[in-house]
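Lecture notes, unit on binding sites. The following record was shown on slide 14. It pairs a sequence with heme C.
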Amino acid sequence: MKKRIYVGLTALLVIFLGVGITIWTNYYSIVADVRETFINVDATDAYVYGEVLFETRGCVFCHTLSEAGSMGIVGPVLDGIGTRSDINHIRESIVNPNALIATNCGNQMCEPDIMPQFGDVLDEAQVEALVVYLVAQ
Ligand code: HEC
């Protein structure tokens, strides 16, 4: 009897977490859309666009990257990512993070299901801009 309650509670928790992350990711992307409209960024310069997106899309909360002045400690440090990872690895890590779990994590968490699956909320040009920006780091 008790066991059943725990199983039920755990299932509920997993569902709430899943729904919560989905809502948050979508809500955050609407806020980001609005901010990007106000910033009026030049989307034709991929590097500059990527730099803006790295901030507006919340990458800064989880990742440390000197160029962006960010000090997130959830995901791996992205300094030097362009020299240690190829372009396809970087793209896949953004579009479908669970497909490729980073290995150079130091004290950070390199677990699946932490980084949002940005392939669901970013369009192709946005992904490419982030890739161009990160390859140069
Ligand atoms: C909620 C925290 C979180 C957010 C927000 C986040 N990431 Fe991540 N990121 C992680 C974690 C944790 C990992 C390690 C697990 C993995 O590889 O999926 C990771 C891994 C990566 C990697 C692979 C690094 C390597 O060394 O292989 C890249 C590239 C990356 N993130 C880029 C981004 C970009 C770009 C954004 C914003 C669009 C972003 N992340 C937003 C947590 C986050």
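Take-home: The chain has one domain: 2-135.
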